[in-house]
Amino acid sequence: MAEGFIFDHNKCVNCGACGAACTLENGWSVQPREIYTYNKDALTSLPLINLSLACNHCETAVCLEGCPSSSFFRDHVTNAVIIDDSKCIGCRYCQWNCPYDAPKFDYSKRIIGKCNLCYSGLIEGRLPACTYACPTGALSYGEIPVSGNDNIFKWLPDKKLNPSLSLTGKQNVVPVRVIPENIFEPEISLSGDINSIVTGEWILVMFTFLVTLSVSSLISSLFMGKFPDILFFVSTLILAGIISLFHLGKKSRSWRAVSNLKTSPLSREIALFIIYSLLSISAVSFHLPFLMIISTFAGLIMLIIVDTVYIYADKRKKMMFHSGQTFLSGLLIVSFLTANVIPFIFIALIKLVTSVNNILTQKISSVNFSIRFLRIALLLITGISLISGLNKGDTLIISLFLTGELFDRIIFYIDFDPDNINKLIYKNITEAKDEKKRG
Amino acid sequence: MEEFVTACPRNCYSTCSFRVQVEDNKIRRILPFPGNLATPEGPCIKGLSYIERIHSKDRIIHPFIRTSYGKFDQISSENALDIISSRLDHFRQTYGPTSILWYKGSGMSGLTNETGSVFWSAFGGATTTYGNLCWPAGLEAVRLTLGAVKHNVPWDLENAKTIIIWGKNPAETNIQEIAFIARAREKGCRVVVVDPVRTPSADKADILFSPRPGTDAALALAAASIIINDGLTDDSFINKHVKGYDEFRNSLKIIPEEAEKITGIPAENILELAHIIGEGKPLTILPGYGLQRHQNGGQTIRSLLALAVITGNIGKPGCGFNYANLQSYIFDAQKEPVSYYPDPQNDLPFRRTISMAKLGVDMLKTTDPHLKAAWIERGNPLLQSPDTNSVRKAFSKLEFKVVVDQFMTDTAKEADIILPAKGLFEQSDIIGSYWSPYVQFKPAIINSPGEVLPENEIYYYLAKRLKLNVSTTLLPEPGNQNIERWLTHRIKGYSDITMDDLRNGPLLAPGLQQIAWEDMKFETPSGKIELYSSEAASKWGISPLPEYVPVVHEGNRHKYPLVFLTPNKSNRIHSQFGNLNIIKDSTEGPAVEISPADALKRSISSGNKVRIFNLTGEVTSIARISNRVPAGSIVLPNGIWIGEGGGGGGGGGNFLIECAETDIGYGAAFHDNMVEIEKIC
C-alpha cells in the first residue's frame, strides 16, 4: 500500500503550523507547503474549506520528467520526488507542469524550492515535519486509505498523476442566524490570488518569435535559391540565445539545460536550438547548400518541439491547436515571404478561424480584445495585399505582416495560462455563485 | 541529540507538552508529546517558533541603559544591578517603598515567579496591582454559582451531543480543542457557535448565531425562559442541586421579540437555540473570555451558566460549562479569582491600590507617596493595558523604570534599565494549566545566552546589594540546582507529589475530578448551585440573580458608530510572537477587519491605510474587508506593536480603549468602546 499525506479538512483551522514546521526543519527561504482556502471570502452560501498542500510525490512526476536540467530525482526508499539545489537552473518549467503548485520559486536563491518529504528523517523513522507538527491531527502521513471521501475537493486537479494524497472532510455550509440589517454578506467582489504563474513572458515571446523568424527566413531563402543576409541571420540567432538566458534564475548553470533529452521537451528545445544554430550559421557563413537543407529540417523540428513544450505543460489540454504556435507561424511567414498564395491562403484561413473562435469562446477582457482585433486586421490587410499582388516585397507590408505574427505570439502567451490551485478555486466559486444567481 | 519533555508556559488554554531535541546548546526540533492527552498532537505554530525565538538575534541578552529617548547602551550585569539597587534604595529612603510600582504580567507562568514577592517583602513592600486584564469576571461568576472554577477534562468533550461554543474561538486560541470538537462531530454531535464574528471556529460549526457584542446575557436569558416555558428543564436536577431556581424563573422578563431587538438575532432563531440547548443532552458550553470583557461580563457569564444549570448539564460526562479548569493549580494557597482581590485592610507590605484595568489612570492618581519608580516583569503594560496614552503619561512621570524582557517591546523602550529575561528552556520550573488537568515540570534544557539571569537570581543579587535579610530557602542562591531544591521545598505539603514524579512527564493533578462535580458537592455557601447568590449582591452590588444589563457605550453613538473588538489571533499570545520571522512568514499580518457594508459607506477598500479613532485616542492600520465581521463592528487583533503595521502606523487597539472595570472580579472591560474609522490613503 502506498504511503502519503493524509488530510482531514474537518480538523484544519489554517493555523500555519505545517508550513512553519517545514521551514524550521529544512531551513527554506521559501515555504513549500501552502494552505489554500476554498471560499476565503467566507461567503455564507458556500462551505469554507482549508487545504494544506505541498508536493504529493506523484507516481507520474511531471516535474521530474519535464525538468531540462535533471534536477529532480526520486528517492527509492521513500518514493519522495526531490529537487537537487545544486542543479536547478531556475527555468520554472516545473511550475507550469505541476498541477498542484508544489514547486515554489525562491526569489532570494533564484531556484525552485519544493517539499522533499523530509526523506532523510523518514528513512530514520521520523515523519515529515509538517505532519508531526500539526496540532489538531488534520495533516498526517501514512498508508493511504483505499476509499477517501474527497467530494468536497472537486475543484482540485484530477488524479491522473497518481498523487500520494488522501483527502477527507465534510461538506459544511454554516447558516448564520442574524437579522438582515446585520447581514454578513452583501455582494462583494471575490478576492483571488489568481496571478498568472507564467512569468517572464516577454523573454519567451522574443525568443520564440526570433527563432520562428530565423527558420522561416532560412526556408524562404532556400526557396528563392539564395542565402540569407549573414549579418542579419547570425545576429538574430545570437540575440535569441542571449535573450533566452534571461529566463533562467541561474544563468551560470544554463549549460545544464540539455541534461534531460530523454523526457524533457524543454531540454530538447534547447538542444535543437543549439544544433540548428550551429548548422544554419555554418551553412549561411560558408554558403553550403546541402547544410542549408539539413538546417531547414532541424529548424522545422525545432519549431514543432517549441510547441510541444507548451502542449506538455498545459494542464487543461486545451492548447493542442493555437493560431500563435511557432510551427504554424513559421509556415505562414515562409509562404508570405515566398509569395506562395495558395499555401498562404490555406494557412491564413486556419489561423483566422482559430483566432475568431478564441475570441468567441473565451472570456476576454477589452485590452485582450483589441490586440486580437489588431492581429486579425493586420493578417487581412497584408494577406489581401499579397493575394492582389500589390506592393509585393514592400518593406512596410512585410513589417506589418510580421508585426501581426508577433501579436499572435503575444496572444499565445495570454492564452497559455496553466491552471493553479487558486485559479481553480476562483473559477469554481464564480461558477457556484453564478449558479446560485440563476437558481 | 538529547531529548527532553517540557511544557509551554504562556498564558494560553492549551499549556502544551512537547519534546525538545537539543544539540550544542541549541534547540533543534520541537516534537509532540502524546503522553499529554489534552495536547497529544503537540503545540501550535507559536510553540514551534521557540526554535527561532530562543536564539533570535533580536533577543535582548545583555542589560541596557537608556542614554536618551529610544537609545540604549549595553552595560554589564554588575553595573546594571549596582545602579538599580542604589536607585531603589534611594526611593525607599526618600519616599518609602510604596513609591515603587511592582508590575507583573502573565508573560511567563511558573512557581519560581513567587520569588519576586519574597524580595519585595524583604525590601519593605511596594505598590502592586489588583484585578486582572483577562478573565476574572467570568471566574467570579463561575465561583459564585458553582463554588469552584473547574470543568471536565478536555477529552470528555467527545462525549457531548451538543457543543455550544459561546464567544470562544478555539480554532485560534485553543487549537488542540478543535481535535476533540471534530471527533465529537464525527460521532454526531451538533456544534453551534454564538459569536458576533464569523470566526474560523464558526467555519467548523453547524450553525452560527451572531448577536451584537455585549448582548449575550439577553440572548441567554431569553433562551432560558423558552426552555422553562417549553418544559425542557431537568426538574429533578434543579430540585436536588439548585438554589434560587424559582427566583430565577420569576425574574425572567425578556421575551424573544424583545431579545431580537437587543441581540439582532431573530426571535424564531432564539427559539431554535433554546431547543438545541434544551434537547441536545449531554451538552457542553464552551464560553470564551471575550464576552466577559464587558462592563456586564460577570452577569453575562452567570446568565450563560444558568442555561447549563437548568438543563441539568453539570457533573456528568459530555456535560459542563468549560470556562476554566483550575484543578491543576494545586500549589496555590489562594486560587484565582480571589487571589486578585485587594487586601481589604490594605495593611500588608504590598499596597494593592492600582487596578489592572485602570493602570495608567490609577498610577497618575496615586499619592502619599506619589509613584517614583516601576519594576516591570513578564508584561508589556504600555501596549496591553487599556488607554495606552494614560499609561505612557504615567510612565513619563516616573523617575526610574526597570523592565525585564526578552525583546525590545514598547514597554521596554520606556525603560531606564532593561534586564534580559530568561527563556522558557533556561530554568527549571513547575506550571499548571487552566484547561488541561496536568501539573508539569519544565526542566532547564539549555544555558541562557549572554548575561541573561532568571528573575530569582536578579532578585538574589539585588537583595545582597541592599543587604536584605532573606533566607536562601525562600530566595535561593543562583544556579539551577538551587532553584530545583527550592521547587522541591515549595511543593512539599500540598500533596504527595514529588519532583521525581513530575520529572516523568505531565502528571494528572492529584484529586482530579475527570468529570467536574460528579460528586455533586458544590463549595458555595448553600452547598448547592447558586442561581441566586447573596454574595453576588453583598460583595459586588449586582443583582443576586443573573440579569442582562445593557452596556453603556463610551462616546457619542452618532459620532463613533462602530463597536471596537480586539480579540486574540492564532499567531500571537497578546503582544508575544508577532515579532518573529517564522510567524510573519507563515501567517497573515495584522489588519483591521471591517464589514463590506461599513467599508462601502466610508469608501474603504482592502489594503487602504486607515485611521481608527474616538475620544480616547487613535491608531492607524491597514483595512481588510471581511464577510466575517458583522455590520456595526470592526475587529483589530490584540497585541499589535506600535509601528508594526504598514506605513509606520500600527499600534494596539488599547489606544482607543477607555479604562473600565467589569461588574465583578476587577477585570478590564475592553470590548465596550465605540470608534469611527476613515481612509487615510
**What portion of residues of chain B belong to β-strands?**
15-25%
Shape of chain B: globular
Percent helix of chain A, as a range, is 40-55%
Q: Give the tally of structural domains of chain A.
A: 2
- CATH arch. level architecture of the largest domain in chain A: Up-down Bundle
How many β-strand runs of chain B? 27
In the CATH scheme, what's the topology name of the largest domain in chain A?
Formate dehydrogenase/DMSO reductase fold
Describe the structure.
The complex is a heterodimer of chains A (439) and B (681). The two termini of chain A are 44 Å apart. Chain A has helices spanning 17-26, 62-66, 93-97, 119-123, 129-133, 201-223, 230-245, 265-286, 289-313, 326-337, 341-361, 366-387, 395-415, 421-438, and strands at residues 3-8, 34-38, 49-53, 72-74, 81-83, 104-106, 111-113, 139-143, 165-168, 176-177. In chain A, helix 6 (201-223) runs antiparallel to helix 7 (230-245), helix 6 (201-223) runs parallel beside helix 10 (326-337) and helix 10 (326-337) packs antiparallel against helix 11. Chain A is built from 14 helices and ten strands. Chain A has two domains: 2-181 and 420-438, 2-Layer Sandwich (Alpha-Beta Plaits); 194-415, Formate dehydrogenase/DMSO reductase fold. With 681 residues, chain B is of the alpha/beta class. Helix content of chain B is 29%, strand content 18%. Chain B has a six-stranded mixed β-sheet, covered by helices on one side. Chain B has a six-stranded mixed β-barrel with strand order 22-26-23-25-24-27. In chain B, strands 10-9-8-12-13 form a five-stranded parallel β-sheet. In chain B, a hairpin with a 2-residue loop joins strand 4 (64-68) and strand 5 (71-74). Chain B is globular and about 70 Å long. Classes of the chains: A mainly alpha (439), B alpha/beta (681). At the A-B interface, helix 1 and strand 10 of A face strand 3, helix 1, helix 7, strand 10 and helix 12 of B. Strand 10 (176-177) of chain A pairs parallel with strand 10 (207-209) of chain B, so a sheet runs across the interface.
